[in-house]
Amino acid sequence: RVTFFVVDEADRMILLGFWKQVKTVSQQIRPDRQCIMLSATWPPEVRDCSLKLCRESPVHVNVGDISDNIDDSDPFNREKQRTARSVKQEILCVPRCDKFYHLLNELLPTCFKDHDNKKRDTKVLIFTSGKKSVDNLVGCLRKIGWPAVGIHSGKEQAEREWIFDQFKGRLNTEDHSRASRAEAVILVATDIMARGMDFVS
């Protein structure tokens, strides 16, 4: 009876090795289904899988900026994709052992340079690779005085909501309509959590 087959976070599913399971599920569904794949990136692996899942040539819908002066004949062209123009990106390559030093002495001071030190209406998101690294980094930051909280899949739903409230600035009271300045100015999260989080401003 399934007529719609939706694969969310397709690039992550394939990267983490779940393509075999996705393919198995697709084989149990009626052949005239409609397949939808959602992906933040569109590497060749995702493109190949989309061609295998779809019975007809897939329609590619791009959300966001597309580079100019690129041949539009190939909708899967990776060079067409670019970051939103309003996003400023800087890349700093450092040895793993120096990451925490650079975070404390370069990145965080830069984020707060136009504000009072650790001012609570300035917010910083830090993404890391795993649950353990989230907990370790939050512990280190809090130990030296930075108001930080961490979020990952190991947290219970009630704890996640409390963490988001701390970061977004809601008072920890029954009246969640009242807003205050954020209790935590730094939120540390696993990279997979980055896909589903959205904060105004």
UniProtKB/TrEMBL annotation:
Protein's name according to its UniProt entry: RNA helicase
InterPro entries, sorted: DEAD/DEAH_box_helicase_dom, Helicase_ATP-bd, Helicase_C-like, P-loop_NTPase, RNA-helicase_DEAD-box_CS
GO molecular function: ATP binding; hydrolase activity; nucleic acid binding; RNA helicase activity
UniProt domain Helicase ATP-binding: residue ranges: 1-60
Entry keyword Hydrolase: yes
Lineage top rank: taxon: Eukaryota
Signal in keyword set: no
PANTHER family: ATP-DEPENDENT RNA HELICASE DBP3
EC number(s) from the headed UniProt entry: 3.6.4.13
Record keywords, A-Z: ATP-binding, Helicase, Hydrolase, Nucleotide-binding
Domain (Helicase C-terminal) ranges: 103-201
Gene3D superfamilies named among the record's database cross-references: P-loop containing nucleotide triphosphate hydrolases
